[in-house]
Amino acid sequence: MVLLIALLITRDDLRQDASETFEDAFGYLAYDVLGWSPRELFILRLRFAGLLDSPLGKQWVGAVEEASKNPVQTGSAYRTVNEFSRDEISADVYQLTLEQGQKLIWQFSRLDEADNRLFASLERREKGSQNWTTITDLDTDKAIKSRFISQSDDYRFVLQPELFASVEYSLAIAHGGSLPMPVESASRRDIGSVFGDPRDGGAREHHGVDIFADKRTPVTAVIDGQVRTGTGGIGGKHIWLTGGLLSPYGARYYYAHLDGFVVSSGEDVQKGEIIGYVGNTGNARTTPPHLHFGIYSGGPVDPEPFLTPEPVLPAR
Ligand SMILES: [Zn+2]
User: Fold this and answer.
1) pTM (global) more than 0.85
2) Ligand 1 mean position, distance from CA 248 (Å)
C-alpha cells in the first residue's frame, strides 16, 4: 500500500511533464486490483494535493450526496442535455426504481471537446439500504447500453466533473420489459389474472399470469433455449423452456393449458418461434382458453415486469 501511494504521488507529479494521465498509468492497479472507481481515485488525488479537507474539497466530495437529496426522477423514458460550468461544484443524480425482470437501457455522450474528466456511473441501492454501489462506469461512446434487472432495487446515474471543469453531456434513459409477449398478437390488456391471486379458496397463490386469447392462438418462445413437454397435472399440456447458462436470470419459463404443441422434448428453439397453441387443458377445462405463463428463478417470480413493453429511448 505504501509503495502504491508513493507511486501514485510520483506519477501524479510526472503527469505535468509527460502529459500522461494518472488514470492511464494506474488504471490497472487501482481499478482492477484494488477495485477503485475513477471517482475514488480522484478523491485520493485531492487528498494528496492537500485539498480534501479544504472547503473546496469537502464541497466536491459532498456534491453527490447533496444532489441525492433531491434526485431527478426519470420515469420510464427520459432524455436530457446538461452542462457543468467550471466555477460551480455540483453533481447530477438521476434516480429510478426497477423491478426484477425489467430491462434498463441508456445512451450517454459528451458534447464538449475538452479533455476534462467527467465521472459517470450507474449505481444500485438494495431495498432498505442507504448504501449505493457502483455497477458500472458509463462509456461516452454514444452506444445504447442495456442491463437486465435481476433484483428489484433503486438505481441511479451519477455524473460529476472533476474540479474546475466545464463539461456538457447528453443522457437518455429508459426502462421496460425484457421479454416479448409469449402469445401472438397479445398485449398486457389480455392478462386476466396476475401473480399472487388466490387459488383454491386461498390455499395457494397464482404463480404466473394468465394471458387470454382465442383457442389455437400460437404461443412463442420468449428466449432461445430448450423445451421439455408434458401432458399431465393441473397444467395439462405444458412446456418448460430453459435457456443456456448465459441466458438472463437463468430462469425457466412455464407454458400451461396448451391445446397442443409443435415441439418435442429436448428440442432447441429460438426466441419468437411458435412452440404450441393456446388452449384450456388441465384444470382450465372450465375457463376460457388462455396461456398460463410462469417464470421460475430460484422460486416463482412475477412475470408482469418482464412482459411490459420493451424500453424505447425518447427522441431528441
Ligand atoms: Zn394461471
Assistant:
1) no
2) 23
